[in-house]
Recover the amino acids of this structure.
């Protein structure tokens, strides 16, 4: 008789009761505990649907006369379906081979790309395992045909249509217009709640107008919510659907013709500066380095930016490639002349003597020049050419102030001091602000801020704030008054302050966008208004000496810019200005010139700032003079778009074949071309790294596009 | 022991209270049918497809047929005295081992190179390892019942272990680790109830753990299997996807469920093997906590009756048989349901009576038949003596 074992069986029973208990507990946790259940139900809902985005085109950018500066163009884009690709080519060596083969074929079709860049894109973590990874845009049709024929060799490779940014005027206004680029992870996170529905694979404005007006330009993608099964197949009709809303067009305050003029004149000014000799070291004269410069042209009414140029520049078409060739990008970024830097709004400069006008106004406004001040408003002061700040009590740097060439200017009042740019006079004012009972150098700083210095012009992407550090010593205060030392200002800020002088004391925040326009209805969605940030107290007794001094600079025999305006049609277009020569040790002096005209109804305020180019009157003033002269003579060329320029050439070729029939028209065109060629300056330096990164071949007449791969090449 | 009413014999067996037919316990059969019906509903939901005008009924028709055949099998099996099995145990066992060996050569190769099925004419797939569970139970019960003097001796233990290990290894090498785990659970439970000595059990458990460890580092376990087990331990693993989706489905059901045919996870096919191994997700999603409770309630009733039967069995052999069946159902239920809720690793084990599949359904019903058979003949006198004389 076998002994049955109720005890052992009971143990088994208890064990099974334990199993039941744990199943019930787990079921309770998953299905009854509210938090868990809600989470699961949310995930289940998400599981079932997919959002399909339909891209909305980005808005265009127009100039003030509705010339299109940035457009969209439909192109072929090569994408790789990551899932298929990984399924078909699981091995690392196979993937490498695939990248090389793909790069070879795309390049052979006419769009150069590196295998390493393709590999990097395919391994980019921002694309999920089921995403389509963009490899190259603007790929010639030839490649689509090849893929159609040999699809099995390129698993997952697809061609789709996409829009890319297109610049009808080529590299014109590159810094101003900026570019779009792939959105960064941080940026994406910060935009997670944006109504514009950003995705990780989207592009976003990275610089210039593209960045500052991102909100206007970007469209809202359409969203289709579809039901799917586990294999990712659609089930039935979309659950919901919104249509894509194209981005709005933006009309800028820029005039592309003025912009082209300013760019060309600035480039010429920089090149001219490089040819002049720096004779500050008499025994050993060297050529000026003049690595770059900037020019700003404003409408004083509202501080509308009419043109803004930075030199050297770059070709923004480089950035439309989705997979940016890193090596070439690094060449641009690391170039010692910093072509990517917008010197006009982000150049780190001291304003130099152009700042004296601010000092002059501050002295008048605070009463330092006044009945109870240091000097009466029109009182004369003896300029001995060199002055030791505060006698023997001064310590620290900048205790000796001297005029250019230590030239004594003798008895001068405020007008003469501006006209001849007396360092002694204005240095003395700065010193008096610092030491005089009831005055403070902070008053000078406050006035400068009222003029828009140390204030970020928020309409311009990438613009810097600059700064005016409070001077610690009497010597530093004297230096600040003449615009030297630690103060940082941008050419845009200087131009803006002169615009305020020109319009009688109204300080605006610089304005770049004029209107946002619905592309379909052409209706103005947003009408941007000038933004007044300060109204300065400017009675006639303040204004007259300032204007009188500025007039002297360009018209009087002793004026520091007299030479540059020697042959200028002043009777029709009176220009008032102020030179600046900024000490920049150990480097050569920077040249600056700020001006406005035509007085008495100024419509233009301009600043030219050229690095390491010597005297402001020699290097910077002629550039402003050249631009103003063309404006005064109403001689602004209409710049052709690149397509128009091409048309001119191809047409002329066609005409050459039909000489007899269209001889008249040919002659006319030839004349036009000859005129264009003679007026066209040798051009604006454009850095195109690697030369042929997918750009249309530069045509013969387009002298504007010079390849300058070596950092200090080109230009000459 | 009971007395028989000698003078009152009738052709109708039910007229004799001592007749085994008086002692049939229908509860486990009813519980099994309950589970089978729940299974039919769930299978239909999982397999009918998306076209309302053209729902697929192939799977429930087949499963319904399996259930009916299963019931008939139970009825037919009851005619034969289970004690006959004691005599035929070696034959059953040898036949099963032979099938498992043949499988290696003639089996149909499934996904991941697994050979678990014979393809029969008419399109049925026969899974010998399912029926093998019963063969194993019969053989082990027979061996254990030879011990009639208290605790299991070392020699007896070795014999039982060796005999049990052969089909276990064959199944593990298919490779089908899920079923191998069921075999292990059955053996362990039967050794426990079969009076294996405590220290022997401890050693055996230790040895099993070592063996599993070695197996996982050997060439018998491919990366796929390993990943599935590792994913159970590692929450971030890609292979946790299935479990994740299953948990979402069950959570999505909530307390009362989404309703028949309304489970979005079920409909979208995000959970794999929904009509077989992951069938509990369908029940969990569409009938919620309530539905899950009913299902587990059926299992509880079934197991409770089996437990009771094992205790009341007329001889040790019968008791061991029921213990084996009990362990088989208990472990498969825990594994199959637990896997969908993330408390057990993912292995392909059907939920008895519920999952779609003929081999599983028939095996389960035969298991029930075996238990009922033992139970109804518990009053047969001198079973052990009789067996003893026949040995």
């Amino acid at each position: 008789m076998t002994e049955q074992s109720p005890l052992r069986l009971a143990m088994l029973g208890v064990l099974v009761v334990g199993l039941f208990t744990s199943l019930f507990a787990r079921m309770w946790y998953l299905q009854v505990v509210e938090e868990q259940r809600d989470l699961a139900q949310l995930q289940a809902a998400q599981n079932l649907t997919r959002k399909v985005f339909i891209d909305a085109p980005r808005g265009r950018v127009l100039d003030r006369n509705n010339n299109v500066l940035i457009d969209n163009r439909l192109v072929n884009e090569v994408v790789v379906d990551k899932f298929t690709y990984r399924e078909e080519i699981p091995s690392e060596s196979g993937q490498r081979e695939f990248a090389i083969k793909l790069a070879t074929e795309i390049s052979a079709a006419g769009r150069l790309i590196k295998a390493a860049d393709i590999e990097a894109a395919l391994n980019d973590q921002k694309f999920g395992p089921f995403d389509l990874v963009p490899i190259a845009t603007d790929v010639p049709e030839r490649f689509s045909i090849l893929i159609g024929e040999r699809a099995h060799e390129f698993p997952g490779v697809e061609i789709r249509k996409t829009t890319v940014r297109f610049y009808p005027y080529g590299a014109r206004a590159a810094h101003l217009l900026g570019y779009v680029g792939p959105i960064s992870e941080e940026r994406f996170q910060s935009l997670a709640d944006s109504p514009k529905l950003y995705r990780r694979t989207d592009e976003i404005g990275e610089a210039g107008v593209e960045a500052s007006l991102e909100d206007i330009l970007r469209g809202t993608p359409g969203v289709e919510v579809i039901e799917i099964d586990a294999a990712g197949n659609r089930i039935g009709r979309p659950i919901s659907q919104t249509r894509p809303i194209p981005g709005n067009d933006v009309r800028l305050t820029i005039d592309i013709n003025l912009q082209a003029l300013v760019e060309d004149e600035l480039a010429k000014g920089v090149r001219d500066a490089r040819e002049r000799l720096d004779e500050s070291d008499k025994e050993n004269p060297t050529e000026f380095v003049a690595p770059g410069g900037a020019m700003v042209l404003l409408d004083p009414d509202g501080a509308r930016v009419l043109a803004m140029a930075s030199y050297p520049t770059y070709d923004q078409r480089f950035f439309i490639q989705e997979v940016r060739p890193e090596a070439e990008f690094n060449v641009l970024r690391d170039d010692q002349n910093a072509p990517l830097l917008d010197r006009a709004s982000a150049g780190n400069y001291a304003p130099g003597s152009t700042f004296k006008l601010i000092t002059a106004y501050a002295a008048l406004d605070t009463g330092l020049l006044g009945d109870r001040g240091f000097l009466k408003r029109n009182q004369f002061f003896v300029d001995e050419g060199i002055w030791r700040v505060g006698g023997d009590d001064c310590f620290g740097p900048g205790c000796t102030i001297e005029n250019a060439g230590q030239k004594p200017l003798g008895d001068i009042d405020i007008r003469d001091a501006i006209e001849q740019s007396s360092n002694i006079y204005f240095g003395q004012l700065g010193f008096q602000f610092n030491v005089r009972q009831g005055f403070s150098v902070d008053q000078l700083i406050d006035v400068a801020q009222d003029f828009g210095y140390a204030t970020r012009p928020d309409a311009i992407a990438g613009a810097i704030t600059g700064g005016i550090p409070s001077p610690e010593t009497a010597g530093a205060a004297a230096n600040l008054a003449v615009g030297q030392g630690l103060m940082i200002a941008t050419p845009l800020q200087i131009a803006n302050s002169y615009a305020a002088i020109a319009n009688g004391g109204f300080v605006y925040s610089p304005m770049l966008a004029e209107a946002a326009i619905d592309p379909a209805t052409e209706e103005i969605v947003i009408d941007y208004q000038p933004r007044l940030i300060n109204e300065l107290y400017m009675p006639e007794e303040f204004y007259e000496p300032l204007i009188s001094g500025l007039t002297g600079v360009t018209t009087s025999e002793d004026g520091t810019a007299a030479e540059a305006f020697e042959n200028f049609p002043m009777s029709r277009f009176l220009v008032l200005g102020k030179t600046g020569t900024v000490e920049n040790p150990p480097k050569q002096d920077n040249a600056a010139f700020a001006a406005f005209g035509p007085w008495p109804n100024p419509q233009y305020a301009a600043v030219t700032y050229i690095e390491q180019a010597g005297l402001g009157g020699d290097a910077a003033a002629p550039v402003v003079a050249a631009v103003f002269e063309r404006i005064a003579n109403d001689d602004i060329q209409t710049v052709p778009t690149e397509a128009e320029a091409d048309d001119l050439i191809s047409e002329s070729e066609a005409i050459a074949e039909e000489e007899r029939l269209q001889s008249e028209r040919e002659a006319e065109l030839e004349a036009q071309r000859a005129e264009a060629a003679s007026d066209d300056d040798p051009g604006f330096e454009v850095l195109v790294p690697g030369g042929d990164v997918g750009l249309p071949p530069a045509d013969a007449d387009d002298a504007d596009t010079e390849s300058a791969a070596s950092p200090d090449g080109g230009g000459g | 022991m009971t007395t028989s009413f000698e003078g009152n014999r009738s052709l109708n067996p039910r007229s004799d209270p001592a007749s085994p037919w008086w002692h049939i316990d229908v509860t486990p059969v009813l519980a099994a049918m309950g589970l089978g019906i729940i299974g039919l509903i769930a299978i239909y939901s999982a397999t009918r497809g998306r076209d309302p005008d053209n729902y697929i009924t192939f799977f429930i028709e087949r499963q319904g047929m399996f259930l009916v055949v299963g019931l008939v099998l139970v009825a037919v099996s009851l005619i034969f005295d289970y004690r006959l099995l004691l005599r035929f145990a070696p034959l059953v066992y040898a036949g099963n081992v032979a099938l498992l060996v043949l499988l290696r050569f003639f089996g149909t190769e499934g996904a991941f190179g697994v050979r678990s099925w014979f393809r029969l004419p008419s399109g049925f797939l026969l899974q010998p390892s399912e029926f093998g569970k019963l063969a194993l139970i019969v053989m082990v019960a027979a061996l254990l019942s030879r011990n009639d003097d208290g605790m299991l001796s070392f020699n007896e233990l070795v014999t039982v272990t060796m005999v049990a290990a052969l089909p276990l290894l064959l199944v593990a090498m298919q490779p089908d680790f899920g079923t191998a785990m069921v075999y292990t659970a059955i053996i362990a439970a039967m050794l426990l109830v079969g009076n294996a000595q405590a220290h022997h059990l401890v050693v055996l458990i230790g040895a099993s753990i070592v063996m599993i460890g070695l197996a996982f580092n050997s060439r018998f376990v491919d990366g796929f299997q390993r990943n599935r087990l590792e994913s159970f331990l590692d929450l971030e693993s890609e292979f946790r996807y299935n479990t994740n989706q299953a948990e979402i489905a069950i959570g999505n059901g909530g307390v009362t469920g989404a309703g028949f045919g309304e489970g979005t996870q079920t409909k979208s096919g995000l959970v794999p093997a929904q009509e077989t191994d992951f069938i509990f997700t369908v029940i969990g999603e569409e009938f919620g906590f309530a539905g899950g409770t009913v299902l587990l309630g059926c299992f509880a009733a079934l197991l409770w009756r089996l437990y009771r039967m094992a205790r009341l069995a007329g001889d040790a052999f019968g008791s061991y048989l029921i213990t084996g069946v009990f362990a088989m159902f208990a472990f498969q239920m825990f594994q199959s349901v637990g896997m969908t809720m993330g408390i057990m690793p993912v292995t392909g084990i059907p939920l008895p009576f519920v999952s779609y599949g003929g081999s599983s359904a028939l095996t389960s019903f035969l298991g029930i038949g075996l238990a009922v058979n033992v139970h109804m003949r518990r009053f047969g006198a001198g079973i052990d003596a009789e067996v003893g004389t026949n040995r």
About this structure: The longest helix of chain A spans residues 6-31. The interface with chain B takes residues 1-6, 8-9, 11-13, 16, 19-20, 22-24, 26-28, 30-32, 36-37, 39-41, 43-45, 47-48, 227-231, 235 of chain A (CB under 8 Å).
